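Z., the sequence and structure:
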Amino acid sequence: MRVAFVSPFVIQGGAERYLSLLLDGLDRSWIARIYFLADGPLVEELRGRGYPLEVVPTGAGPLAIVRSARRLRGELNRLQPEVVQADGIKGALVATIALVGTRTPVVWLKCDYTHDGWLARAVARRCRSIAAVSRAVTETFRRPALDKTTVVPFGLPEAAVDRAKGRAALDELAGPGPVLGLFGRLDPHKGHREVLAVLPRLRERHDVRAVFVGADDPAHPGYREQLAAEIAAAGLDEAVALPGFRADAVELIAGCDALVIPSVTSRGGLGKEGFSLVALEAMGVGTPVVAYDYGGPPEVLGDCGLLVPPGDRDALHDALLSLLEDGAVGERLGECGRRRARERFSLSAMIEAMETRYREAAA
């Protein structure tokens, strides 16, 4: 099976990680070519690992989409893949326009809520198959789109990390004491301000600190500076660290006392977590998770995390306080998470499920 991949995802985030793990898990003979709709760190990384790829720069707006689709159509006509996997709404839109009038099937990897509504439903009609990372991201669909949709969640290899080494690294970043971690690109939707809102109250009883680990998001220029100014204004300079992207992120997660996923949304659902790879990474290393109860995290965590109503900062504070004050709660959640990650989210199951989607689409 020769599969061409079309993806707009190029920074260090969950969607990029999904694609990277998938490519590594497939036999190289399956990978006809990867077309990225922008340049970025993932492009450089995969190029260095020898993957066949090309950047098809694609701006915003209908004209940019059409121009990109026209170029992609020429590329795919020459390549003649048996299946095209398109990531996200932008990748699926460009791919389906490029393949109008051809018999090449598109498998849409739906991993977020971007442009849910009429556009997502229109794109779904043009796809042969839809692989959704969670049931939550399919809520915009009705039949017949649901009939060709299969949930294919993230899968991860079992993690072998040194928790003590992670804790030592956190001590260097944030100082000694309990640490709450928020891991993800620096995007206002990730909920950094939710943590800043509850941290002073938590520090009245515990010398707790926070680390915000993640790369700058090109879609939100200046956000790091805004966040740093707000941290300083709140007198939390010594309690909050902003180390940027870290290659040892999973080790740092293992060293945290709790991982926090307090994502907030704007109109249209932008910002809602479609899956939350970081929740799965925390489960795999036994770190307890506190998350807002919507989107993908409830499906990932099940009974192995503390879920609180979205936007309820009092409930967020109370859940985090319970972890800081009762070690048995964290131990129970950590063990539950390890077991759930191992049993429900294996990398081999993810690869096998996507191979099945390709075969069925081509057939």
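The first strand starts at residue 3 and ends at 7. The chain has two domains: 3-155+346-362, 163-344.

Let me know what you think.
H.
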